[in-house]
Amino acid sequence: MKVPVSLRIAALAVATTGFYTYVGQLVPQKEVHPPAEVAISKDMKPDEMAKVGREIMEGKGLCFTCHTIGKKGPLRFPDLEGVDVRAKSRVPGFSDVDYFAQSIYQPSAFIVPGFNPGMPVINKPPIGLTDDEILAVIAYLQTLGGKTTVTMQTKLPYQAGGNGQAAAGTVAPPPAGPTGGPAATTAAAPAPQNAGKKPETPQNPNPSPPQ
Amino acid sequence: MMKKGLAAFLAALLGFAVIVGIATFLLRREYHAPYRAPAAVTQETPRAQGIADEKAEVEKRDKEKPYQEVEYRQFPKIGSRVAVWIAAQLHLLFAAFVLAVPLFALAIEFIGYRTKDRRYDRLAHEFTKLLSVSFSLTATFGAMLTFGLIILYPKFTTYLVSVFSPTFLPYVGLFFFEAFFLYTYYYGWGKFSPRVHLALGLGLNVVGTGIMLIANAWLTFMTSPSGISEKGALISTWDAVRNYTWMPINVHRIIANVAFGGSVAAAYAAFKFLGAKTDEERAHYDWMGYIGNFVAICAFLPLPFAGYYLAKEIYAYSQTLGLTMMGGAFSWLFIIQAVLIGNLFLAANYYLWLGMGRISGAEQFQKYIKYLLILVATCFAVWATPRSIISTVSEVRAMGGSAHPALQFLGVMSAKNTAVNILILTTFLSFLLYRRSGKTPTVSWAKAGNRAQLAIFLVAATIVISLGILGYFVEARVRIGFSIPQVLSVLFTMVSVTVIDVFLYRNATKTGEVRWGQIAPISQYVLIFIAVTFTWLMGLMGYVRSGLRQHWHVYGVIRDTSVDAFTPTLGFATRIVSVCVLLFFLLISFVFWLASLTGKKDWEPRPEKAAETERPGLEPVGAAE
């Protein structure tokens, strides 16, 4: 029996489409839901803050879309293993909390040598972490090579209503840099292959993308 | 007659049975008062009063109801997202076709005008036959999409209107001119001087491109918004238009539309070839299919470069968005894309190799086909190799990790960039061999020219492979930069080798003719396969472009709070893409069928009926006048 041409063409179209649909079923199937909000209370202890901070980094903060912990080799973004050690010693006069706060609120202020600018402003959409959530993230980052010293009462100069005054238990605003902007701090720790290299002159990276 | 009568009786009987069935079904659902035992004294039920009170209460409530803006409405059964997705996808597929066909129809018409070869004019006319119905379908699906957005996503649509309202009037104006140019171009074929007709075609293309640029501004704004404040208030419509991804999408879409349009036109030719009754018809449609496919492949070769440009701008706008695309939720989608593009390259090469069979004197090149096939298959395999694979615990143990110890090196960008560039070079080489079949150059510098072409090929391949290998040993920033010299060396090869070839084969002696129509029928199924694959690829890439925003209508500005505010699985997405593709081919078959009616004879009554009408007393109405 001779199959009509139109039927053959239809069968080919259906078979081709069916094959691609089948390929689509072979790859990992994952629904991606908007990140869940994490409950934060003002009386959290440092270890609780660090735990919540990790959860935020995995979820709403989208940190691990780019950053890694303990990954070697050529990386697109700095690896965070032992970041607190580098954060303390990177810039004289800067505490690790200064370092982390600026890299989260003003990520374009300084780009780690060897990397391209790319970190978004974390307290604005689309990520939009709150000040409390950022404190929790800093608490977790401190555990990567150090100990959590930040508390839910710590005032950061970038926070809403922050006056930029350094006081006991608060973080000093970063000193002015050569271009009149904040001085060079690292946006995050350098990746292993850049360790020991002389930091380059602070860049004035491309303006932030329009939001 | 008896049989027809019996069939009509049975059909009527069946129809009656169906109606009775429906009536019975409905009557069963009619309200019946519950059975009550008769009482000695029947108390009058104040039912009527109760109903009246209820009605009054509802009326009162309705009158006092305050106006509330609705954020979302639900489309029944399939949901709002899928409804808008299907309408948008079908609109885009027909719009791409309607924008692409005039581009190459005009070019073919121009070639016919310059060479005075009427075949080209006929071919261009045949391509435009597919346009008018497709244009109507584009408009229909455009209206469905617009109403879908207004009804199902009213708040988001209001926001888009607030940003882009100044662009709507020009859009409508251009649409009107598009209709004017399209119908004048098609119905005016042969009715104007060639120059006027070409000018109409040019107008059609300019206006069509203008429409696309405006529509692209709306959709790219959703991914990479600009020209607005942090709170989303409009600052500048022009800045909103020329957002980060607008120009890359414009470039990518124009090229992709031509590739898609060429492949669908080639599928039409294949459909006609397979149903052709005469050798002349077969020759014509074989040629038409070849031209359509040639257009598709010519546009397809630079398409990955336009894709790089788009991806680069997405990364420039937001690294997070770029990484979501390539390393996050959508990373596996690019493995599916590799399968599709690999198939396209394989099929395009196969068609060219089959085409060599209809050229006398092509035998000398056929010995190279097996090597080309090995290259294409190897590159395809590399491109489709994922970095990590889904594996069981025992498999992970055996491999020593989630990635295969050897194959993992093929799953990274260095390997994939190298594979796709070599794939493009190989396909270009196939085309070059096809072009040379049956010809011998006569220029004095023929040998030097051949050597120069070979040298260019070898240098380009060396650059591509060397940078690909080097990419494994340098930091990411440097590695990303390698894709530019890789792409440029391939582009340079394609342009320079083509230029040399044109001069090399000018006034070449023909050692054999192209026997149009004498190609294996399977080649025509290959053309249809290419068209289906292109369409599916467009659907898939449309999904990633749109899905990239994840739970945002406008990335970082208007958040999706509907029930669909999540990214579905790739399996679900591919099923929707398939539905769209099948619907498109169902509708485009209708367009093909309508286009094929134009060449058919007018309807005439069959001889027996004609004889009946000739009998006295059965004259048709008006015959006496």
What does this protein look like?
The complex is a heterodimer of chains A (211) and B (625). With 211 residues, chain A is an all-alpha fold. In chain A, 31% of the residues lie in helices and 0% in strands. In chain A, helix 2 packs across helix 5. Mean pLDDT of chain A is 77; it is low at 163-211. Chain B folds into two domains: 70-326 and 517-596; 359-388 and 403-513, no CATH class. Chain B contains 22 helices and four strands. Chain B has helices spanning 2-28, 47-64, 80-115, 118-128, 131-152, 154-187, 194-223, 237-241, 246-274, 279-300, 303-317, 319-326, 333-356, 363-366, 369-383, 393-399, 413-436, 446-470, 476-504, 522-547, 570-597, 607-614, and strands spanning 439-440, 509-510, 552-554, 558-559. Chains A and B meet through helix 1 of A and helix 11, helix 12, helix 13, helix 19 and helix 20 of B.
Annotation keywords:
heterodimer, A: mainly alpha, 5 helices, elongated, B: 625 residues, mainly alpha, 2 domains, 72% helix
Summarize the structure.
With 211 residues, chain A is an all-alpha fold.
Count helical runs of chain A: 5
Classify the helix fraction of chain A into a percent range: 25-40%
Average pLDDT value of chain B? 88
Strand content of chain A: under 5%
Query: Could you give the distance between the termini of chain A?
Result: 64 Å
Percentage of residues in helical conformation of chain B = over 70%
Report Rg of chain B.
31 Å
Give me the secondary-structure category of chain B.
mainly alpha
pLDDT under 50 segments of chain B (min length 5)? 617-625
- Number of structural domains of chain A: 1
The main sheet of chain A comes to: none
Oligomer: heterodimer
Which strand order spans the largest sheet of chain B, edge to edge or round the barrel? 1-2
Tell me which protein chains meet in the greatest interface and how many residues each side has: A-B, 45 and 64 residues
Separation, N- and C-terminal Cα atoms of chain B: 33 Å
- According to DSSP, the number of beta strands of chain A is 0
Number of helices of chain B: 22
Average predicted local confidence, pLDDT of chain A: 77
Structural class of chain A: mainly alpha
Question: Under the CATH scheme, which architecture of chain A would be assigned?
Answer: Orthogonal Bundle
Low-confidence stretches of chain A: 163-211
